[in-house]
Amino acid sequence: MIRKPHFDPQRVREEIAIAAARMIAEDGLDYSTAKRKAARQVVGESKIGGDFLPDNDQIEEEIREYQAIFQSDSQPAVLRRMREAALDWMEKLAAFDPYLTGAVLNGTAGEHSDIHLQCFCDNPKEVAIYLLNANIQYDVSETRHFAGRGYVETLSFLLRERGEEPMGVHIALYSTDDLRGAVRADGRGKQARTNAATVCALLDHPDSSPLEAGS
Description:
This protein has helices at 9-27, 31-43, 56-70, 75-92, 103-106, 125-133, 196-204, 210-214, and strands at residues 98-101, 115-120, 139-144, 151-159, 167-174, 193-194. By secondary structure, the chain is of the alpha+beta class. The chain folds into two domains: 9-70, no CATH class; 75-214, 2-Layer Sandwich (Beta Polymerase, domain 2).
């Protein structure tokens, strides 16, 4: 743990957020892994107090700034392609009430990102049957429930398009009851998931935020 009194928590958080954002944008690390590696890089300690760590919102803002400076010629096109692919699959999965979440929704998706969908239906197994009937080869894993209630089954596959790099697609399977209250923005106006109509609006107005596009 940090015991050196000359460390300024705010400055350490900023440096960790900047370092983590670079790792996510350039190497495709997840937030948790990037935060741990950035903390070791900045502080040189294996464990540090929580008051020295940035939250994910702060890291997300640094990712946006990094992309605007270093990836402005490529990231917007990558994001659009991923949103188009996400919308296509949301339309295919319309019977299962699909929602988009993650970096493709918030606009920070890059070449190392995957598409993350959540389906809400009475019988989540029907999503697996749909994929099988569509000749989609998928892997099965688990994703932590967004409300912290254990884990949910997740179906993952690679989406291959001619002449393009393959994209990972992950479909987390929830019950219909899980959707109640889940689409509300939080106290800061941040939307964790959104429907196909909002994704379509984001494609029409790429400079808008998910909340603005969905209003």
